[in-house]
């Protein structure tokens, strides 16, 4: 680099290259340059194949300061510029804003799998946008079968007889949502709902006949719980303002379903309460008043179980989708190795170790995956890492190093 | 003087065949390419210096259209004639 070679060094290099003696190459160089300079001094140009040509300027402007022009041969020019061969002049656009540039590079990065550091954040955002719809789809598929319509049928009597506080605010919300959903819902749902509610009523009846006084406290306690729990679920459905219409629709639907589920839970409770409270006077009158305190306690626990079973039937529905999330799949190609896929889905290439862990059964060698292999992208929560946490990145990095060491 | 004439001239002077001379010329071209590609320079006394010079990437503006182009970096192979050769040429032209 930036070294000045002497004629002796040049002669050695040429001798080595041409596999002749140093003496020979020295003689050759001496003779060659003498000839060329003689020609140039006499005002004639010289052409040397593979090196270039020395030409006299067309108009000798200054006799005091003569010049010659050296035009290197195309082959030598290309060879010297080999390191920059992949570059081409690029037109710069002043109108391009920072955001447009980001989107462009992000598209490039995901399409070609090139390494663009600056886009990592953007890629992360894109992933964040892509994922929610996937997370929210399951409710659409899985909720309907569990949805309880029949309780809705029971509604009118409940409202007429019991003067519950929760009912009025919940009802107006429910009616339109039900109508919106009833387009897709199948009538068989009703039968499923029947099955769920009937045992509850039976349980409640048993509890009522044995001891009714212990229950009211519990149920009143649980009612607010249910309503408060239902509300955050609704919120979790809403806070992702997603640009795409489809995702917005899905979010809206899941939100409506959350409301419906919450309302149904409240309905069930109120009906239970009604069953317990309404006929209480009659029941207490008819049943033997000498009920042991032990029996009462037992029944309260039974009642608890009954009520908790009711909740189990209702609550898990919004939670279920998280377990059975439709697996996100991606395909490994020559240009998109695991690291690129990891960067796309998690925002950092080191998290490929978790993808590998998830797909151990189909990947024999993590460093040599056949193009076309389909891999499952696990959720970050499954392996308990947070793609944005630098600590987790470090951990993934360590894992990756261990993995490579194990392979060796 | 073109390449053919030069080779002929050198074969006569060196007393070797054309193949040998061509081989030596090719070797010289190869060495110059290699060394100048690494941004070294080769000085030949009495003749001049071959210089490998790197130009960084730069933005050029077209005065007519106003378009701006980003020109990639490049290496230029340059030749600087020596003072001796320059003087010889000067004397030759005076004579």
Explain how this protein is built:
The complex is a heterodimer of chains A (408) and B (95). Chain A folds into three domains: 7-57 and 66-80, HU Protein, Chain A (Irregular), CATH 4.10.520.10; 144-323, no CATH class; 328-407, no CATH class. In chain A, 63% of the residues lie in helices and 6% in strands. Chain A is built from 16 helices and seven strands. Chain A has helices spanning 7-18, 22-41, 74-80, 98-112, 120-146, 150-161, 167-182, 188-210, 215-237, 245-277, 280-286, 293-314, 316-323, 338-346, 352-358, 390-407, and strands spanning 4-5, 46-48, 52-55, 69-72, 90-92, 328-331, 374-377. In chain A, strand 2 and strand 3 form a beta hairpin. The model of chain A is unreliable at 113-242 and 281-323 (pLDDT under 50). Chain B is 46% helix and 29% strand. Chain B has three helices and five strands; from the N terminus they run ααβββββα. Chain B is α+β, with helices and mostly antiparallel strands and 95 residues long. In chain B, helix 1 (3-14) crosses helix 2 (18-37). Chain B has two domains: 1-38; 39-95, Irregular (HU Protein, Chain A), CATH 4.10.520.10. At the A-B interface, strand 1, helix 1, helix 2, strand 2 and helix 3 of A face helix 1, helix 2, strand 1, strand 4 and strand 5 of B.
- Enumerate the strands of the largest sheet of chain A in spatial order, edge to edge or round the barrel: 2-3-4
Strand composition percent of chain A: 5-15%
Mind describing the biggest β-sheet of chain B? 3 strands, antiparallel
Low-confidence segments of chain A, ≥5 residues, pLDDT <50?
A: 113-242, 281-323
Number of helices of chain B: 3
Mean pLDDT of chain A: 65
Distance between the termini of chain B: 22 Å
Which oligomerization state do the chains in this entry correspond to? heterodimer
Q: Gyration radius of chain A, to the nearest Å?
A: 40 Å
Please give the share of residues in helix of chain B. Answer: 40-55%
Q: Pair with the most extensive interface? A: A-B, 64 and 61 residues
Shape of chain B: extended
Sequence of strands across the biggest β-sheet of chain B? 1-2-5
Q: How large a portion of the residues of chain B is in β-strands, by DSSP E?
A: 25-35%
Q: Element order, helices and strands of chain B?
A: HHEEEEEH
Determine the CATH topology of the largest domain in chain B.
HU Protein, Chain A
Identify the overall geometry of chain A: elongated
